[in-house]
Automatic annotation (TrEMBL):
A Pfam family the protein falls into: ABG_transport
Claim: Transmembrane is one of the keywords in the record: yes
Residue stretches spanning the membrane: 16-36, 71-90, 110-143, 150-170, 200-222, 250-271, 283-306, 327-346, 366-386, 393-411, 431-447, 459-481
Keywords: Membrane, Transmembrane, Transmembrane helix
GO biological process: p-aminobenzoyl-glutamate transmembrane transport
Superkingdom to which the source organism belongs: Bacteria
GO molecular function: secondary active p-aminobenzoyl-glutamate transmembrane transporter activity
PANTHER family: P-AMINOBENZOYL GLUTAMATE TRANSPORTER, P-AMINOBENZOYL-GLUTAMATE TRANSPORT PROTEIN
Name by which UniProt lists this protein: AbgT family transporter
Amino acid sequence: MFAFIERVGARLPDTAILFLWFCAAVILASVVAAGLGASAVHPATGETVAAASLLSADNIRRFLTDMPRTFADFPPLAMVITVMIGIGVAERSGLIAAALTRGVTRVPRALLPAVTVFAGIMSSLAVDAGYVVLVPLGAAVFAAAGRHPIAGLAAAFAGVAGGFSANLFITSLDPLLAGITQTAARVVDPEYTVLATANYFVMVALVPLFTIVGAFVCTRLIEPRLGTWSGTLPDAPATETSLERRGLRAAGLVLFATVAATVALTLPAGAPLRDPVTGSLEPFYKSLVALTAILFLLMGLAYGRAAGTITRGEDGVRLATDAMSSLGAYLLLAFLVAHFIAFFNWSNLGVLTAIGGAGALRSSGLSGSTLLVGMVVVTALINLFVGSASAKWAVMATVFVPMFMLVGITPEATQAAYRVGDSVTNIISPTLPYLPLILVAGARYVPGFNLGSLIATMLPFSLAFLLSGTLLLGTFLALGLPLGPGVEAFMTPAG
């Protein structure tokens, strides 16, 4: 099946042209849906949401007048460009290649897939920075170890996107989803409170599970299909020289100093990277992209100066400029993907899809644990079309949380089912904002790597994560294990 998907994908045109087709398909679908009068009542607001034709006068005007803003407001765009300034200098100075060459000698070959998937899962602490930094790095690490770089890209991508709902720590997504869940729960119980730790035990349990499952899929399914890679790692040194060792020491000192400065800016009460009112670390989390760019930039400059690849200030500017010039393919694809996603939102097809999926599950006649498993599957399907976890949950929670409470399922259990299904199909969704970055990273090592290649590579991870995550949630339900501190899945009759 995976080979068939890849063969079909290989016959497709260039990914940029493919997204032009996608845009045309959404335009056609919007015209048909609007013509048929497709509409639904938004469960959160009570307002009627109707399909809007993208060929209406308002949307044509919106498309033409907002085109620059649609592109500029594309969420990953500024992040990718910012981080690339730092990473570009680090890469072109030789730091990343030298660090990878040393690093792969320290990580046992057999553990490389597991370490890569685990790092991807934990990267959700940095919100979306894992897409920008870790996915390309995973490909480079595997290539430096003599393994197929697409396997490394896939392992990192599976961890970052497919494992986004798992972590050993509370992330910025937890309080956001808990707030939406609490609002929906208070429709039934005005005093109900949902904590950010509502699904903490499930999140933690998913980390080793997805790490093991992801490593197995990578090693036993993906790498055998990919075969032997005959390319070379860009700018990779054959052996470590004395200048490179000196450069790595200089970069290490900069790393230590930068981390120490970040700690000083974050941990003390009233520190700049703490919220001045609540004292939370939200400003720190929001600063991680900028901190990552600064860290790589300083380390790259320090390495280049010590290793002799940077001898004057103009060299650093040249390296940064070269890095930015390599973003041409990404910028074109990002422009098309930004408009594809915008068309989906302007036409209201995404909201209608979410409401329709919720209605289908509501009328399915399922109950108890079966109802929660059904919600996992429906969420995974809707996630193919509506990527935003919070936007999707804002619609679904208003329907499912009160409905499930009335049949004895706690809001926390409903949220847990949603979280299991929410991220596992990110890696095969054409609406993922970071898709252009992943495709460009893959094409760097395998010319012609396109959307079909990516879906064929990632589908085994998606199916494995969906199956194992659902089984884990079922185990929690069957054994009556708490989903978080003091949180049960089912209400007592008194509750």
